[in-house]
Write a structure and sequence with these properties.
The protein is of the alpha+beta class. It has helices at about 10-25, 40-45, 50-65, 115-130, 135-145, and strands at about 35-40, 70-75, 85-90, 95-100, 105-110. Strand 3 (about 85-90) and strand 4 form a beta hairpin.
Length: about 150
Amino acid sequence: MSCPPLDDETVEERVRARLARKEALTRRPRTVYGFVIHEAALRTEVGGRGVMQHQLLQLPQVGALRNVSIQVLPFGKCSGLALNGPFVLLETAEHEHSAYVEGPETSVLHADADKVSYLAQVHGMIRMQAFGVEESAAFIRKVAEEL
């Protein structure tokens, strides 16, 4: 349940958008995707045990794609930088860089080189603290089994 509750149309729209993002991973095999997921996100049960287990077990499968890497940032390795919320680093075919920062009330697309550079540095520091790709896949499977 969301707070405040969402109407059915909004929920359906968000589900369609998420499915479209998932399809993009295989539709564009030359595009490289890298994800870092905090352990808390893996352990926060959403939708019930069965739904959560299914979702978790999808992650190593997606991470096995040639163009996708998934890493887990474990409890205890988290720098304060990782707690500032989700963000996405983007690079166009023309090598222009931007960053999309999500927040509870608003989201912002940054094109300012200094801001994007700072977020790229933050991302690098978070990745250094995260498990490697193979260790992350094993960890995700373990969390799914523990449910």
